[in-house]
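User: I need a structural model of Transporter from Streptomyces lasalocidi for a docking pre-check later this week. Nothing fancy, just the predicted structure tokens so I can convert them on my end. Input:
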Amino acid sequence: MWIRSTMAYRTSFALTVAGNLLVTGLDFATILLMFAQVDSLGGWSLPEVAFLYGVSATAFGVADLVLGSMDVLGGRMRDGSFDTLLVRPAPVLAQVAADRFALRRLGRITQGVLVLGWGLAHVDADWTPVKVLLLPVTLLSGAALFGALFVAGASFQFVAQDAAEVQNAFTYGGTTLLQYPPSVFGRDLVRSVTFLVPLAFVNWVPVSYVLDRPLPLGLPAWTAAASPVVAAVSCVLAGLAWRAALRSYRSTGS
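Assistant: Understood. Predicted structure tokens for Transporter:
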């Protein structure tokens, strides 16, 4: 329904997607401005950072397209309209994900793919069959990891009911963090992003392996292929949190 509504005004849709692409592109413009003054950032060259940025932005863009509407959940619970989703013959999570579905978010994915393509074309990497296969697996795993964060954040809104910004701190804030090399951050932050909220497996760990760089925190090389496992575990935990939160829901009352 939301897609049909959006495509009813095709020129407006095209302009909105273009605007979304340009606005999200400001993040990479900031990185370009940094490299106008320095030759490397934390020991990483511009193509390497573009590679890092492209993986994070593309993975997050896919998750944001599918599950980015989760932040409306708190508002629905406060005004009582969430109750109408419970009586429909469809999974509640799917309904929340489809609520106000914004096809304009394709602009973010396009922007991420363009930067990723440029980075791959200019990065100095010793490509092997394993590394080539690792790239699409990393993108899919990264999208699943961000998706798990969206669902976990939505589950938290059952408790806080006004926690959209808390959720955004881990989703939008997480992808912004991952756009920069791990070497520019403190060890404690890198440790928390690796073991507490495992966002490092979106791009820091696999990209470091592809570029033959030391993995964050001295992790062994085999962990570069652990992203699918980490993503699967995160999705299971987020799913359990969602089910528990949904069962605890007691409506808004009067």
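Before docking, keep this in mind: The first helix runs from residue 2 to 7.
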